[in-house]
Amino acid sequence: MATSYADPLVWGVILVIGVLTYAIRLSFIGLFGYLDEIPPRLERPLRYVPAAVLAALVLPAFVTLDASGLAVDKLVAGGLAAIVAWRTENVFATMAAGMGALWAVRFLILPVL
Amino acid sequence: MNRADFRRGVRDVAPLLLGVAPFGLVAGIAAANAGLDLTQAVGMSVIVFAGASQLAALDLVGRDAPLSVVVLTAVVINLRMLMYSASIAPHFRTFAGRVKAGLAYLLTDQAYALSIASYRAEESVDRVAYYLGVAATLWVVWQLTTAAGVLLGTGVPDAWGLEFAVPLVFLALLVPAMEDGPTTVAGLAGGTIAVVGAGLPLNLGLLVGASVGIVAGLLAERPLEVDATDGH
Where are the transmembrane segments (chain B) (predicted)? Predict the structure, then answer.
């Protein structure tokens, strides 16, 4: 899935994301004294950004359709990794469980079914 | 700068590197898969230095999504750092503008979490030294593992599905983010809508899902609050 955007566009998008991200980081650190606290109207929705964004990144990767229907390997691996993530809250253990399950289903189980 | 406090920051961040290093490798692999070369991949890690947004942006760039969607998605993911900036700002208020500008560049989930815990536990800790011990270590590891991932990523067969490691990293971050009722509702709603909207034009599924999730979390606040004050 290599991009067909030309190099200058890739650099441009990196720069724009970088500048905006830096502005977010600097915001209150830079403005402290002028703006001491997050306005409540902004703070409440911000509380839900991590859960909403991360879930929107995760679920479509586990529940996907391919040519033959639901991609079973990803569904099984994702479900197993979710249990490990829930029990351990550990990035490395979650990755190991998910990739291990993906390869097991893809290379060992699906070929003999 | 207090060297002991700097070393303490380095020591405290060490166990977290076990999670950061594979995350960086995945970012490098994702960059290679999206068609970025080593310079662009490391350039992105230096300029953006925010893993989750880098991975999401690389995924979208690889699928030739409109660049406005790429930027908007990355910015939404990084909005959480507004909270970190506001929370840590009082501890940095006496420093010169130049110092603040540098500290802000290094602000990450892990640097924020460790530093704020240390500042609260111990009034006398050298704030800059401890923060730099944590944040600069993370920066160096992030750059090195991104570069390693690019070099590794081009040599691995497609059938291995290494790109699947990306959502697995997010999954490990998602579980602690769903810390109570409303945040769990936000996650479930955001994820479900993103699955349903996966076929939306312009790859807008993620943004629509995330927006619906945030609104769902806000709506879930009220009934739960009422329950809590009812004393049931």
Answer: 12-32, 38-58, 65-83, 128-152, 159-178, 198-220
**Which pLDDT band, with edges at 50, 70 and 90, does A41 fall under?**
confident
SS3 content of chain B, % helix, strand, coil (to 5): 85, 0, 15
- For every residue of B58-116, DSSP letters joined together read HHHHHTT--HHHHHHHHHHHHTHHHHHHHHHHHHHTTS-HHHHHHHHHT--HHHHHHHH
Q: Mutation test of the interface with chain B: which of A31, A58, A73, A90, choosing the one with the most B Cβ atoms within 10 A?
A: A58
B94-128 pLDDT per residue, tens: 899 999 999 999 999 889 988 988 998 888 999 99
Q: Who among A20, A45, A51 is closest to B190 (CB)? A: A51
Instruction: Give a yes or no: residue B167 inside a domain.
Output: no
The whole-model pTM stands at 0.81
Distance CA A87, CA A94 (A): 10
Give the domain-ending residue among B129, B162, B195. B162
Q: How many residues are there in chain B?
A: 232
Residue B172 lies in a domain: no
At B227 the pLDDT is: 55
User: Is residue B131 assigned to a domain?
Assistant: yes
Residue span of the structural domain in which B211 resides: 178-232
pLDDT in tens, B132-162: 999 999 999 999 999 999 998 877 787 888 7
Check whether residue B182 and residue B215 sit in a common domain.
yes
Q: Which residues of B touch A48 (CB under 8 A)?
A: 182-183, 186, 213-214, 216-218
**Average per-residue pLDDT for chain B:** 90
DSSP secondary-structure letter at A109? I
